[in-house]
Amino acid sequence: MSKTIIVSNRLPVKVLKNENGELLYKPSEGGLATGLGSIYKKGNNLWVGWPGRFFKNKDKKKEARAKLESQNMKPVFLTQEEITLYYEGFSNETLWPNFHYFNQYALYRKSYWDAYEKVNKKFCNEILDELNPGDRVWVHDYQLMLVPQMIREKKPDVSVGFFLHIPFPSFEVFRLLPWRRQLLDGVLGSDLIGFHTYDDMRHFLSAVSRICYISNHHGQIQKDRRTVVTDSFPIGIDYDKYANQAAHPDTLSREVEYRTSLGDQKLILSIDRLDYSKGIPARLQIFDIFLKNYPQYQGKVSLMMVVVPSRDSVEKYKHLKEEVDLLVGRINGKYGTVNWTPIHYFYRSFPIEDLSAFYRMADVAMVTPMRDGMNLVCKEYVASKLDQKGVLILSEMAGASKELSDAIIVNPNDKHQVVDAIYRALTMTEEEQKKHISIMQKTLKKFNIHHWVSLFLGKLDDVTRKRDELATKVVDKKTQTSILKAYQAKNKRMLFLDYDGTLVSFDSDPQAVKPGKELLKILKKLSENPKNQVVIISGRDKTTLESWLGHLPVDFIAEHGVWLKDKAGEWYMAEGLDNSWKDEIRDILDIYVNKTPGSFIEEKDYSLVWHYRKVETGLGELRAREIISHLKYLAVNMNLQVLEGNKVVEIKNIEVNKGKAASKWVSNYKPEFIMALGDDWTDEDTFKALPDEAYTIKVGDIHSAAKYSVESPEVVVRFLSLLN
């Protein structure tokens, strides 16, 4: 029975040790553990991760493994050095600051990278030990970005999903990482890559385009003859858990106790982990400005600030803690009275009962990180508002702002805007509060953590199913022998050969790919065999094909089927074609040439081609999208077809395609053996038009209407040499 393997840096249980040396297993309160709990606890499913503890004692290590494995968890044990270099080092001192736009804190140390590779390999090996055909693997977050490709190298057919829980930075920021290409290649081992927001996805696609030189089509990337799908899946919370907790008697009694202690105060709530990305000092400065600008609220409003300890032994976090302590003391000293404390500051974590009481009490929640992947505190606050009274001030830099548009959205760097937002929140009518909270609650109820899990895994299954349905059979030695046997058994054979990308590799200069001596020798031998009819079927113009290959006894289908010629005859044109449209379309393409350095127009007899192989990566793809969009409606009215090829956009008559021309050749000559090779989607027309018994081979991508695939033009040339 197939299973789901969840992989994350941490297991959903933390292994602790009590004062007697006994091991304790504390479940994680995190949203991910809650959402995926329903998955990994079922059947033979599994969660692979670090148990959060370094083990010196072998017996304790063995005991922990047995206990965790009995609960469908497989521990990855790390050494103290690995924890320091991989987790605290590369993950949190290299990737974390870079991905959150704090590059001044990023450390680029080779020892960190080496440990990161080593630990990712260790995770991969644990997964491979458990992996069976039909299983699916879901890898989580920035600590394990190399794992998908490592798995793919060992198990090419496995279904792998990856989800990034932090922001993905813009290309200009991401490119600063010395190991940027390796990280992208690692993640691209996945079938499906998920992000919290469309912006994160867009940044990732841009980085892939600019660093790996791979463009995308509607978020789909062709990599290593596979299709990698990217999409945004905003993570939710367990809405019912927080709503039910807010109604629990324990929560209500704590709320009464805390309200009595605070007195008649308006309460602003702030809950964060200690981290520079959360903008805690800026939030304190904003509260200072608010009390100064609106003195009428002095004595009437307090800020309850909960800061959860995090890595405070690290120097920059230690300095951050000192800065926060200093600001809290300064503001309390500046404004506080015997009866009123402006800021109630807690540097510790609280159980969910206390947090729920804080959520219920708070008139305003201020969630203003400088950069955050999602931020679930704001969602927990909204879910806890059973009376729907309360206001959420939310940073536009948090992923949650894309969903919770009924919050007061602010730029955390604009302190005076946030000050005004606090005033607006404190003066908002109950009717308006209820309206906004109600709308946000409906969103959070629907898009909860369980919806997120089922959406991602459903999409992963869909992507894998489509991949398997469209996958061609790779031409291995056995297949090669079978095709050669069929070829040799027939006396009347027809070979359809595309040129660019099939017989020769692409080049930035379309005229720089003349056939070499080896290719010409192979084509000569094939075409001179009386049993063979070789048809060069290409998008190239007839003049170029004639000059390069005209001395050979081959047939030609040029410009996708506009011009036709058999080896004994003259060139003739397909019937019913008209090129009166070219002047109007050329004028449009000229506009794009003038504003896109490196692009140019190639004019064929009955088509126009806009080339952008020499254009800056990213800009060419953008212009191609613009051209296609610009010509979409014109093309329909003028009976034209707009084709997107490899770094080209071609406009031609709709009646013309390679499939129609190939069908005509087959109908006229009635061969006993047919083989067609092509590399792009214009060749798909050929594959679809040929009889079922034809041998159709796609060069490059394995997803095709063709029956078989080969990796590259070099493989094609070697294969053709065997036919002689």
Kindly state the percentage of residues in helix.
40-55%
What distance separates the N and C termini? 47 Å
Counting H and I runs of at least 4 residues, what is the number of helices?
25
The assigned structural class equals: alpha/beta
For the secondary structure, the number of strands is: 30
Q: What is the average per-residue confidence, as pLDDT, rounded to a whole number? A: 92
Query: What Rg is obtained from the alpha carbons, in whole angstroms?
Result: 32 Å
Low-confidence stretches: none
Shape field: elongated
Overall description:
By secondary structure, the protein is α/β, with parallel strands linked by helices. The chain is 44% helix and 19% strand. The chain has 25 helices and 30 strands. The strands form 5 sheets. It has a 9-stranded mixed β-sheet with strand order 5-4-1-6-7-8-11-10-9, sandwiched between helices. A hairpin with a 4-residue loop joins β21 and β22. α11 (280-293) packs parallel to α12. The longest helix has 22 residues, at 449-470. The chain is elongated.
Summary?
By secondary structure, the protein is of the alpha/beta class. About 45% of the residues lie in helices and about 20% in strands. The strands form five sheets. The chain has a nine-stranded mixed sheet with strand order 5-4-1-6-7-8-11-10-9, with helices on both faces. The chain has a nine-stranded mixed sheet with strand order 18-30-29-28-19-20-21-22-23, sandwiched between helices.
